[in-house]
Design a protein that fits this description.
The structure holds 2 protein chains of 2 kinds.
Chain A (H helix, E strand, L loop, with lengths): L3 E3 L6 E6 L5 E6 L4 E5 L5 E5 L6 E6 L5 E6 L3 E6 L5 E6 L4 E6 L5 E6 L7 E7 L14 E5 L4 E6 L5 E6 L4 E5 L5 E5 L8 E6 L5 E6 L3 E6 L5 E6 L4 E6 L5 E6 L18 E5 L5 E5 L6 E6 L5 E6 L4 E5 L2 H5 L3 H8 L1
Antiparallel strand pairs in A: 1-28, 2-3, 3-4, 4-5, 6-7, 7-8, 8-9, 10-11, 11-12, 12-13, 14-15, 15-16, 16-17, 18-19, 19-20, 20-21, 22-23, 23-24, 24-25, 26-27, 27-28
Chain B lengths: L1 E6 L5 E2 L8 H5 L5 E4 L5 E8 L5 E14 L4 H7 L19 E3 L11 H21 L32 H19 L24 H5 L2 E5 L7 H8 L5 E8 L6 E9 L2 H11 L15 H7 L2 H6 L7 H4 L8 H4 L17 E4 H17 L6 H12 L10 H10 L10 H14 L2
Antiparallel strand pairs in B: 1-5, 2-5, 3-4, 4-5, 7-9, 7-10, 8-9
The chains are: A mainly beta, B alpha+beta.
Protein name (chain B): Eukaryotic translation initiation factor 3 subunit G
Keywords (chain B): Cytoplasm, Initiation factor, Protein biosynthesis, RNA-binding
GO molecular function (chain B): RNA binding; translation initiation factor activity
Amino acid sequence: MRPILLSGHERALTQVKYSKDGDIIFSVAKDHVVCAWYSVNGERLGTYHGHQGALWTLDVDPTTTLLATGGADNTMRLWEVKTGRLLKTWDFGSSIKRVEFSEDGTQLLGVTEKRMGHLSTIVVYDIKLDVEAEQASEHSLRIVCDEAKATVAGFSYLSKFIISGHEDGSVTQWDAKTGERLKETFPHDADMQITDLQWSPDRTYFITACKDKTAKLVTAKDLKVLKTYVADTPLNSAAITPVKDYVILGGGQAAMDVTTTSARQGKFEARFYHKIFEEEIGRVRGHFGPLNYVAVSPQGTGYCSGGEDGYVRVHHFDKPYFDFKFEVERENDNI
Amino acid sequence: MSKVAAQGPEAAKRTDWAEDEDEDLATALPAPQVTKNKDGTETITTYFIREDGKKVKRTQRIRKTVIKEKVNPRVAERKTWTKFGAEKSKPAGPQSDTTTVAENIIFRPMAGWKASGAEKAAAEDKKTDQLKNVKIKCRICSGDHFTTKCPFKDTMAPEGEPGAGAVDLDVDAGADTAGTLGAGGSSYVPPHLRKGGAGTGERMGGKYGEKDDLATLRVTNVSEMAEEQDLREMFERFGRVTRVFLAKDRETGRAKGFAFVSYQERSEAAKACEKMDGSSADSGTTLAGPARHDKLAAGPEAFFKQTSRASPNASDSSGPNLPSERDFAHPENNNRPPAPQHGKRYRIRWVADFRRRHAAGHAGRKLAKTPPGDVVAASSDSSRESIPEDAPRPTDHVFAHLEHGEEPAAEGQVPASRRVRRWLEDHFLQW
């Protein structure tokens, strides 16, 4: 496969996302710009200007009309995807580390950083899926994480739960209606930050990436750990691929240590594991910095990765990817 | 929904800007031209002014292929969106400043992928472990320190070396000298021969040189154009090569025709010696052999270039194996026509053997000053023994004749054959 190299950012990428139809890739980096790209050929559709600080996160609603971003300028913003127009700005006391739309796009959550006397919170807004509508300024729900700050969060299936990952390696399940804490587990090593949480296509389970060099598949309903994927480097991101039963992990040496490690030692590769057998099946090289985020196309035809090196690499899977099967799978097919 | 994908530019060639340095064209840019070619491709000629102010004509040949693809209507609609932000008013299609195609990556998922990678890593670990486990052993006192750090290094020679210890040597030498003087009467025995006759004189390269020699090969018949790297590659097939030395002419920079290859292990060197000896050398250059007397005039290195060891009767068909007395012993040889070249074949010998031969030859030469006697005979015999590969040579009788029968012309004068040999040794063989 020939990756497409997107070099629209001047600083390290922080998050990349596909639209629900897989045709547009959105990317945010520590420079203050959001970019939208056509995934098929890497053509840049446009940029969204307005943020005043590094951007940490973005999400796009399922209909690809609205785009939410959050960053270090303590704002969460809503954009019109088509034109790049800024629709709404929410101001906070600290930076926004994560935004995510619910499955139907009617709710938007934001995770705020614990800093400057502010506790880490998860805020939820009701969203009207219309570019002309006036969006609510007041949050519909606010969860305060007073024990350990939340780093990632998302809506489970049917917006039933909010699942959050924390800096101490814990995963918490909250009631999405009331904000009540329902469950808490510690799937990862203590005091190892959970860096990413991505959902399966049906949002019944999710994968967490952690600095403890493992990624885990956890159910949304009872937070049971289903699978564990062991890597040899701190992980920044993990994604579940549709169509084929794989997971993709991305990571690498911490950004501050990059200068002291060679690209080979740094292990700046996207690792592919078989989702069921937990076995590594291959790696894709290319970045010369840690991978900060990996995103899989919802159609399962490709993935893209955003790296500390400032590049987004878009990969369209070719035949061997789809053909690969374990021996037991092949035997099963023949029966 | 159909989509037009441009495949190309197949041939994006820029004409020399100097050709476009036309006053008329400099002011107005011609409109882009599109011409349709017979084979279905299009040639697009565009003119533009480069950043440095030069006007450039760009000719692109593209082939347009229509790929019909069914996509979601929403996706199709989004494809028609106009660009905005930094991309506003940019033409359709990927822009070269933001979008590039990277190198092809072969991604082939494999069961047990990790195992293969881990194995390699494990092997590397093993190697480093091995290196770590190598015990440091002093060659003098067998202590666990480097020989150079040994507290006895000034007073004792390394274990197993003859004449260990300065005190020993003095005693032995005194006894020997006394004995020889008593038995032989007036004949002077040089110090390096006082111990057992086959003693070795001082050599260049220090007294530990022998150790390295054990795994070092001397390669002759090397092509003039050879490079150290070529040799290294060739010999690395048999083991880890620690050093390659290719003798080069100082003035021309060309290889002189011989080289030394050191291996880490003697066994590897032995293997290389066995496999490579007589194997065909780099066929890149074949030297047209000049007449023998020309070679003499050109200097002894010419011998190295042309020697060959294709058959036991090599001396008849091609050049001699080594610079030796043979050619000088038979003056008529000098008038022989140039020997036919049968392709260069490497000749590989142990450096250690070579050194021993050299040492023996050295001893014999020195002894030539003395009248032939028991000592001389013994020394020449010992030199014979130390060169096992000389044994089957058909010209041995010449040697024997020379060594035993030739009378030195006068006291203090060395026979011509030995003079040349000494010259050779002094210039090329003292390594």
